Input
Amino acid sequence: MQSIKNVLILLLLFTGNTLFSQTAGHEWKQATSNGYTYKYVTGDPAKARFYKLKNGLTVILSPTAKDPRIQCYIATKAGSKTDPADHTGLAHYLEHMLFKGTDKFGSLDWAKEKPELDKIDDLYEQYNHTADTALRRSIYHSIDSVSGKAASFAIANEYDKMMSSMGAQGTNAFTSFEQTVYTDDVPSNAVDKYLAVQGERFRNPQFRIFHTELEAVYEEKNRTLDNDARKVREKLFSGLFKNNNYGRQTTIGTIEHLKNPSLLEIRKYFNTYYVPNNMGVIMSGDFDADAMIKKIDKAFAYMQNKPVPPYRFDPEQPITAPVTEEVVGPDAESISIGYRLPGNKSKDVLLADLVGQILTNGKAGLMDLNLVKKQKLLRASASAFTLIDYGVLFMQGTPTQGQSLEDVKTLMLGEIDKLKKGNFDDGLITSIINNQKKIKILATESYDSRASDLMDAFTSELDWKDQVAYTDQLSKLTKKDIVAFANKYFKDNYIVIFKRKGEDKNIVKVDKPAITPVETNRDSQSPFVKSVNSMPAAPLKPVFLDYTKDLQKGKLGPAEVLYVQNKDNAIFRMQYRFDMGTWNNKKLGLAAQYLQFLGTGKMSAEDITKEFYKIACSFSVSAGAEFTTVSIEGLQENFTKAVTLFESLLKKCQPDETALAALKARILKSRSDAKLNKGAIMSGLVAYARYGATNPFNYSLSEADLKNTTSAELVDMLHDLNSYSHKIIYYGPQLLAPLTAGLKQLHVIPVAFKPAPEKVKFTNATQTKNQVLFADYNMVQSEIRWVRNTNTYNADEEPVVDIFNNYFGGGMAALVFQTIRESKALAYSTFAFYAIPDKKEDPFYTLAYVGCQADKFNESIVAMNELLNDLPNVVENIKVAKAGIKKDIETGRITQDGIIYNYLAAQRKGLDYDIRKKTYEAVDGIGYDELKKFHSSYVANKPYTYCVVASDKKVSDADMSKYGEVKKLSLEEIFGY
Output
């Protein structure tokens, strides 16, 4: 499960969670229907109904019938902020344990299991209160022993299996400062089953299979120790909040508390905060609200209202001078700056949000234009992040080549000074409002976005009316308001964190305890699960695409136009998809990046960016391996302006030697930074395993080629781009005929396209013997991937591949997760799948993964190899996998421009039909025999290339050589530069 929402990452993205004053245009109203009274906000595009049941449970319903699915959240207004000071991480523990079942599901024999669980409770209390090392070891040995006996009566992952069987997607949960949220996306015909499960889930949860789940949390903690960005954010919050638990505690908890858990304290936390008056059920999707509220009321009526203790804290003292801290680690250097802001009940919160967008909105903010567009920094961003008690203006910057972190700090604070002096375009506020209107339109397109926004408002204790009125309220703010706000809050009262490259000698990892693998009883089923699975559900018929009917085709000279009409709103999305990429010309990628820094002679690059932002439109150019894509999107009313603006830029862009020199420096710095990123290193190893020493990952311009590239050749390439073969993809309100007629004037192309440069071809490697590719990285954990290329693409094999992936390693109900994490507690994250290629000429390939502590390296490889070589026959899991595939197809709706991209993907595979139809028709005829045959043919007892990223101080050559010939790759070999 996701567990921690990575809420701090939202510091870079967050633009919601704001509180506004009353607005005449939107009012709360009350209505009664089907015996239930609810409130709603006039003019709410989400058409949300807000109910308060008799026991205090909040229910928020936002019906929309576009897709036969429902995004469901069950949210508790409690998180790490309300963890006891002596048991931090408790809310997060609890989130994990609420997937383990109750006395009715998750158990083979509750009468026999309960006494063993009681013993485990007692043993953990002894363990928690014992300091003597030898005695603790003895107690843990008893915990392990009793846990094994208790597990013999448990059924692991019954929750996940139930959800998969009913066709749920995205089954997960997350914990952050002030929320713990459980999420499922369920078919609309399965809502009765869903509510039966949820009502039971929170009735009497049992914390079974605890010590292996605790080990998964240990693994999660160790992963955070390898995450420099997380360490920076935790350090920043600890500096800003000395009295509030935002800074005093972390969501995952301290190592000391992780080592000393208390099941009694976890249960106490559940009984305190998981009460109806502190919880909400939020749904958006295809349902009738009158019928749904009655069902929810029935499912949760047993819950009893109880007072919830308020969170109390001493107000933070003012920061009177800048505070500087450092974090060291292997990742690239960066700087983070935080200013403390008021909480979301303050009248200034709307201004905080607007200030964040003035600094960074991705296009025309002060930092966007002055630091990124002018290439003074590699990256820079700012955003306001608001919680209930306090907020933060969070700024991040990454140096370009030759810069110090002190230089970055000076540049970023310089933009704050401009804000305080009002040195920004007066029209920027209007542009932000226009773009927010577009964002609001896009947010209402999908049921999952509606549900997410409503859930966040609930857990943040915000007034939904104010959320609906957001752009109206934003438009009332003036430049004078912004300048006053900036001068009030942005003084020498910030925390700055210098993230420097180096070894963190203070890391203390959570050590591996002695755990005996537990029984998961994965082929068993509790009576409750049988009863849920047998509940009737109205059949839903799948809807397959018919490419002859679901999209239209037109012509614009030699270019094919692929068209789907947007009948829902005024948004358009258009792409020019060119049939060439960096495999045709390495410099295409450089040219695509260069364009954003160029002007036309009459307009500078900054002018063009501001003009696009002003009309709530945007463009981007990206060069992939085989395609170069121009994307233009925005409000249809500004379609002609946006396309004209882009076409003028492409045709008239002027060389800029200063911009190119800065871009080359930024690219060199980005390359240097990539070599410090363990994820990038692993991607390079996998590419090496799949293709050999020359592969798509390291196919890039050499440093000499990069330095010798001239502005003239890049500009010529851009001027000539429209002369090459491409398709035009359009999704928007305009009809096809007027669209093509209008584009004929705007998008000028030749009568016949030029031939593209010949494409380089990469040869897929054939694994004939086991091999280990190793890259050294200073980290606590070890990352391991198994790679093997197999047979060339065959559409007839897709059905069995889909079922195999669902059964074997594709989720929490799959064999890999159940075995490696649930039973053996070897890893927090693990998966395996048989990957389907994008093109008919490419092979399928197997990819498996375990991310584990370095001292579990051997055990993890043995465990995965056992599964790769011997496919267990778990009848119930196969049923779950097949049911999940069928329901996904029955309720899946490919809409909007997704229709076009599905069609193009089918074309690349040589198909002229929706491949889902083949899978749907084949599912019922596939069982264990077919899966076993497939597994034996392509997966089992075959040579693999093991890709390993780990510290050579923690994983030895002797360990790796057990699995094949070890080849240690240098960063130059991996990256090609």
User: Anything to note?
Assistant: Residues 110-128 form the longest helix (19 residues).
